[in-house]
Each structure stands twice: as structure tokens, then as C-alpha cells.
């Protein structure tokens, strides 16, 4: 199928994106549900700030994961949305809002680690469940309003039946995308770089921190860095070139044709974030490995006749 306005071969991304979305959905859904189940065992009052961060992050992942089957249907239908305009609007907003909500909550986790390790005493009054819940609500609201400002009034094209696609993009949308690159990638990278550097300096000057705690801290920062570099990096770097060049070139359709496939594949790559976020539960939980081993339904060679899994108390370390 060719795009009516720029003569793009839209079908070239179908196989690649279908594979990426299928992998993300099939592995990410059970991983996130299992992590949420573990957090549920803790209870909100017992998990502290990290509990709130992780619940928000995993819920964001789940909402995005639930849109992936619809995007697969859209791709297999030659980029024609088979459902109502309202459903396209809803799914489009959900995908975008949860993408950047995930970025915001990753920064939230990095800042929480920074406060807990670099300023453990001074941050006690702000590192509370109440403040974390309010911060999470503010993040959701600001992310929604920011995405609304760029996607309004519609992400659906009734003539072509495209959903969240337009070729060439509008000037307003290109400006919005540059904003997402600055606020949704460059700024978070700066936050991550600063907090990681300060945490590293603190750990080197704190011999009292155990090697076990060091591994957990480094593991958390490593996962965040991995997500930004491998998952979000290609999408925003290709997008930087595309949308800056949009304002500098007269041949905007030529620009769209040259970058269509790499940009779309990098766009799909962001959904693999859902596979890595559950790793935070492992690094931020004290007893997750023991807990998983204690579950009869997950023990090697266990019989389903043993009934439901036995629950043992978990503990999330509020300090580290």
C-alpha cells in the first residue's frame, strides 16, 4: 500500500513491527503481571516509595502492552484502522502517554535512588509514600496534557484511515516531536547522568555499603541506562534528525521516504521497554529470588496438584 500524499510503501514495516510487538506482548505481559503480583503481596503500606514507583511503572507498561494486539491488526490490515475513530484516538493517546510516563517514572526511580544514597537524612521528609503517590499523579497528569497538546485535535485520518500516521507530518506535530525529544529523552538522560555520577562518588567514599547493596544499586542504574540507550535512544536519535530536517528541507516527502522504515522500526523498538522494566523488581526487592523459589507453581518439576502458591512475606528495601 502507498501513502496517498507521499507515495510511501507503508507495508514495508509490517513484518518487522509485527515481530517486535508480538515479542513484547507475549513476554512482557506475563513478566509485568508477575511483578505486579509480587508487589501486591507487599501491600502499599509496606513497600515505601519504591513500591509506588514500581506500581506506576508496571501499570504504564501494562496499558501500553494491551494496545499492541490492535497495532498488529492495524499493520496486517495495510495501515487502515478497522475500528471506530474514537478507538483510534483512545489507543493512540494510550500508546503515547504511557511511553513518556514510563520515561518519567524511570527518572523518578533514579531520583529516588539519588536521594536515598546521597542525601539519606535530608530526604526522609520527602521520601514518603504520600509524596510519591502525589508525584505519580502529577506525572500522569502532566504527561497526558503534554501529549494532548501535540496530538490534539485528532490522530485519525478519515480519508486514508491512518491512525497516528500522517505523511508528511504537520508543522505543529514536528514541533511537538522536537519537544518530546528534549523533554522526553535529552532531559532524562541529563538527570540519569547526574544522579549516576553522584551515586558513584558516594559509593566510592562509603566503605560501609555492603557488596550486596552495591550490586543492587548498580543493577538498578544499569537497567535504566540500558533502557535509555538501547530502547529509547535509536527512536529519539532518528527522530531528532527527521524533525529537525523537516524544518530545513523543501522536499519533505523525500525525507519521509528515506526515513520511513528506520524510524518506524525504532518506534516499535520502544515497546521492548516492557520487557526490561520488571527487572527493577528483582534489583529493588530483598527476597524475590527466595520468593520465586518458594512458589510451588514455579519450582522445577512441581505438580499443579499442589494447589495455589504459598505466600511468604517480601520486603522492599526503602533505603537502598
From TrEMBL:
Q: Does the keyword Transmembrane apply?
A: yes
Q: Which Gene3D superfamilies match?
A: Rhodopsin 7-helix transmembrane proteins
TM spans (from-to): 20-40, 52-73, 93-111, 131-153, 173-196, 217-238
Q: List where in the cell it is found.
A: Cell membrane
What's in the keyword line of the UniProt record?
Answer: Cell membrane, Disulfide bond, G-protein coupled receptor, Glycoprotein, Membrane, Receptor, Transducer, Transmembrane, Transmembrane helix
Q: Where does the G-protein coupled receptors family 1 profile domain lie? A: 31-281
Major subcellular site: membrane
- The organism's place on the tree of life at top rank: Eukaryota
User: Can you say what this protein is called?
Assistant: G-protein coupled receptors family 1 profile domain-containing protein
Amino acid at each position: 500500500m502507498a501513502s496517498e500524499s507521499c507515495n510511501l510503501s507503508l507495508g514495508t514495516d509490517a513484518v518487522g513491527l509485527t515481530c517486535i510487538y508480538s515479542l513484547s506482548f507475549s513476554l512482557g505481559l506475563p513478566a509485568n503481571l508477575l511483578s505486579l503480583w509480587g508487589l501486591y503481596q507487599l501491600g502499599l503500606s509496606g513497600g515505601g516509595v519504591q513500591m509506588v514507583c514500581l506500581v506506576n511503572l508496571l501499570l504504564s507498561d501494562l496499558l501500553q502492552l494491551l494496545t499492541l494486539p490492535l497495532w498488529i491488526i492495524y499493520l496486517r490490515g495495510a495501515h487502515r484502522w478497522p475500528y471506530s475513530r474514537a478507538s483510534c484516538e483512545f489507543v493512540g493517546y494510550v500508546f503515547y502517554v504511557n511511553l513518556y510516563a514510563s520515561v518519567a517514572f524511570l527518572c523518578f526511580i533514579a531520583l529516588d535512588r539519588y536521594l536515598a544514597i546521597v542525601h539519606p537524612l535530608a530526604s526522609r521528609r520527602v521520601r514518603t509514600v504520600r509524596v510519591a503517590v502525589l508525584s505519580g499523579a502529577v506525572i500522569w497528569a502532566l504527561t497526558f496534557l503534554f501529549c494532548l497538546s501535540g496530538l490534539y485535535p485528532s490522530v485519525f485520518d478519515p480519508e486514508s484511515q491512518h491512525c497516528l500516521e500522517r505523511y508528511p507530518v504537520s508543522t505543529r506535530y514536528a514541533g511537538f516531536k522536537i519537544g518530546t525529544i528534549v523533554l522526553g529523552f535529552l532531559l532524562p538522560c541529563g538527570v540519569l547522568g547526574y544522579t549516576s555520577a553522584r551515586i558513584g562518588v558516594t559509593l566510592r567514599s562509603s566503605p560501609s555499603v555492603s557488596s550486596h547493596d552495591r550490586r543492587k544499586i548498580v543493577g538498578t542504574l544499569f537497567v535504566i541506562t540500558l533502557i535509555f540507550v538501547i530502547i529509547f535512544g535509536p527512536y529519539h536519535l532518528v527522530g531528532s534528525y527527521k524533525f529537525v530536517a523537516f524544518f530545513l528541507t523543501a522536499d519533505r516527502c523525500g525525507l519521509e521516504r528515506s526515513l520511513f522504515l528506520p524510524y518506524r522500526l525504532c518506534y516499535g523498538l520502544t515497546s521492548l521497554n516492557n520487557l526490561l522494566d520488571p527487572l527493577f523488581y528483582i534489583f529493588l526487592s530483598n527476597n524475590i529470588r527466595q520468593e520465586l523459589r518458594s512458589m510451588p507453581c514455579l519450582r522445577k518439576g512441581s505438580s499443579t496438584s499442589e494447589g495455589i502458591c504459598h505466600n511468604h512475606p517480601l520486603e522492599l528495601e526503602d533505603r537502598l
